[in-house]
Design goal:
The longest helix is centred in the N-terminal third of the chain and has 37 residues, at about 25-60. α2 packs antiparallel against α8, α3 (about 65-80) packs parallel to α6 and α7 (about 165-185) packs across α8 (about 195-215). The radius of gyration is 19 Å and the shape is flat. It contains 9 helices and no strands. It is mainly alpha-helical and about 240 residues long. About 30% of the residues are buried. The chain has helices at about 1-20, 25-60, 65-80, 85-100, 100-125, 130-155, 165-185, 195-215, 220-230.
């Protein structure tokens, strides 16, 4: 949330100026770049939450029984992939804000929430009680994927032609890199030394380094661009 909100907050004034000047191609390019730069952080975070939700919960809630922490971890894992559409949707909503299109946002949110409520009722009725909360977390994730699809449609009505296929392919590529890095760590989780906190720090440190190295090896230019920005070599 820190990364996503910071980026989209900085993006809105630029988008507003581009809307005033009717530079729709520049709007598309700016939003697309923002989504790709966010993906560099969001994708590995989502994969990490998906695989290591239980360990993260044990670290955050170290004073509660292990079974309760594990259950919270499963819920976190069910939420994990929702990070991706939530972040993308925030960028799309900022784009709609730049066009001062609040009516479409209300309509989109209504459809999202209606679907979410219906699916939640189904989950509460048909899932075993112990799995209802995890199921609701999964529904929330699905709810944001649907919302993102709606937002893509709404922004397209303003002549902003985002390269959806390019963005999806880029995210899949990042997800593959993250999975290649994190899967072996998950399989070997029983052999990682230390308690939950030490294990989590080792997993985060090792996966972050390998993720960036592989991304650079594959010449994912957005990663190189971001590293240059962090080092101050490029504005």
């Amino acid at each position: 949330s820190i990364i996503t909100v910071s980026i989209v907050t900085a993006l809105l004034p630029k988008l507003s100026n581009l809307v005033i000047d009717k530079k729709y191609k520049d709007i598309s390019g700016s939003m697309s770049l923002t989504m790709r730069l966010m993906g560099i952080f969001i994708i590995p975070a989502a994969v990490l939450f998906l695989f290591f939700g239980e360990v993260i919960a044990k670290v955050l809630y170290f004073g509660i029984p292990a079974d309760d922490a594990n259950y919270l971890g499963l819920t976190l894992s069910a939420f994990a992939l929702g990070l991706i559409p939530v972040s993308i949707n925030l960028v799309l909503l900022r784009g709609l804000n730049a066009f001062e299109n609040l009516k479409s946002q209300v309509l989109g949110n209504f459809i999202m929430n209606l679907i979410s409520v219906i699916l939640s009722i189904v989950a509460a009725r048909y899932l075993e009680p112990k799995w209802v909360v995890v199921g609701l977390a999964g529904i929330f994730t699905l709810h944001y994927f649907i919302g993102t699809a709606i937002s893509f449609y709404l922004i397209g009505r303003h002549k902003v032609n985002l390269p959806i296929g390019v963005i999806v392919f880029f995210y899949l590529k990042l997800a593959l890199v993250a999975a290649v890095v994190i899967t072996p760590l998950w399989l070997l989780r029983g052999q990682i030394p230390g308690g939950n906190l030490i294990q989590l720090l080792i997993v985060i440190g090792v996966s972050a380094v390998l993720y960036l190295l592989i991304a650079q090896f594959l010449k994912i230019t957005e990663v190189t661009y971001l590293i240059k920005v962090i080092k101050g070599g490029r504005e």
